[in-house]
Design a protein that fits this description.
Blueprint: H1 2-7, E1 18-20, H2 36-53, E2 58-61, H3 67-76, E3 82-89, H4 95-119, E4 129-137, H5 153-168, E5 173-176, E6 188-190, E7 195-197, H6 199-210, E8 214-218, E9 226-231, E10 237-244, E11 250-253, E12 261-271, E13 288-294, E14 300-303, E15 307-315, E16 322-323
Parallel strand pairs: 1-2, 2-3, 3-4, 4-5, 8-16
Antiparallel strand pairs: 6-7, 8-9, 9-10, 10-15, 11-14, 12-13, 12-15
Helix pairs in contact: 2-3, 4-5, 5-6
Length: 324
């Protein structure tokens, strides 16, 4: 493989840091799958050999909530840095229920691993966090080749709610990798002559560029809205993101403790004419990011129907630990 890399124009190694040992080895769809009792031994053998070749690498073990996780964590805790988890969600008729699926699964997996830390002796003194390295919706017709599904506005709302749940559980999630990228249940769709960001890709772009990096606690009853907040890296901006899965406008009341807002900021919003709106390569997007400056923000943030609203609010006073 090294010779092949050189022949393709990259003389030096890529210096890959993170390595997964196997993928979904609990499933009979995988070549080489086996019972967990056997796989514990195989994982440890591979881990020892890989670390002997390069002690600096980080290893991700195959995980799956339930008995598989319990045996892997009990038998392999000294031979992993993270443990992988996967989930996919199908389509539900109710938009709020469809949206909630992603966040519910993120929370379910986090809660399971918090319980493992209390019940599995091998984890004592260790901080083995989760690599949720496959997560997405997976349903519908294949418009873009094999598994080339189409994503709608309602899927975008769910992905945003999932990102909120990752922020709330950032103490136990080390990484989260949306799967996949292009066409195959992807956030980018292509034809022979054009490419476009799917609705879910718009969300990933928005949060990557503009959502804060230091999670802020949010209290109060937001449901059926999903509300998350985070400070910017320099703590000069408070970002507040709101997912509204309903067909009615709702406002979020903001009571910031320990800091004050100037009333100025910016707003990025993703919405569409209906929950089944989608983007198509070569055509104007039905679902896109709209941006505008805002002023006069006091204590309420509007949230239109079927929308994601990401507010970046300028802070006048010192940063606070919590907002409500």
């Amino acid at each position: 493989m090294g010779k092949l890399r050189v022949a393709n124009g990259h003389a030096k190694p890529y210096n890959v840091r993170w390595w997964s040992i196997g993928n979904e080895m609990y499933g009979d769809w995988q070549i080489g799958h086996m019972p967990v009792e056997q796989y514990v031994k195989k994982h440890n053998e591979f881990a020892k050999a890989m670390r002997a070749a390069d002690p600096s690498i980080k290893l991700i073990a195959v995980g799956n909530v339930g008995p598989w996780d319990e045996r892997m964590l009990a038998g392999c805790a000294d031979h992993m840095d993270l443990i992988s988890e996967h989930f996919y969600c199908n389509e539900l008729k109710s938009v709020p229920a469809h949206v909630r699926q992603i966040a519910d699964n993120v929370r379910r997996i986090a809660e399971a691993h918090r319980a493992y830390r209390k019940t599995i002796p091998a984890l004592a003194g260790k901080d083995i966090r989760i690599a949720l390295d496959e997560w997405n919706y997976w349903y519908g017709e294949h418009y873009y080749g094999e598994l080339g599904t189409r994503y709608f506005l309602k899927d975008a709302l769910g992905i945003a709610a999932g990102l909120h749940e990752y922020a709330r559980n950032s103490d136990i999630y080390a990484m989260a990798n949306y799967a996949q990228t292009v066409n195959v249940i992807g956030c980018i769709t292509t034809s022979k002559t054009a490419a476009s960001l799917a609705t879910t890709g718009q969300v990933l772009k928005l949060y990557r560029r503009h959502f804060g990096v230091v999670p802020v606690a949010v209290s109060g009853k937001a449901a059926p809205l999903d509300v998350a907040a985070a400070w910017s890296a320099d703590r000069k901006m408070l970002t507040v993101a709101i997912v509204n899965p309903l067909r009615e406008k709702l406002d979020v009341a903001v009571d910031l403790k320990g800091a004050s807002l100037t009333g100025e900021g910016r707003l990025w919003r993703i919405t569409g004419e209906h929950d089944m709106a989608y983007n198509e390569p070569g055509k104007a997007p039905q679902v896109r990011i709209e941006e505008k400056p805002i002023g006069g923000v006091k204590d309420r943030l509007p949230s239109p129907p079927l929308s994601i609203s990401l507010y970046a609010l300028t802070v006048a006073g010192p940063p606070a630990a919590t907002t409500r």
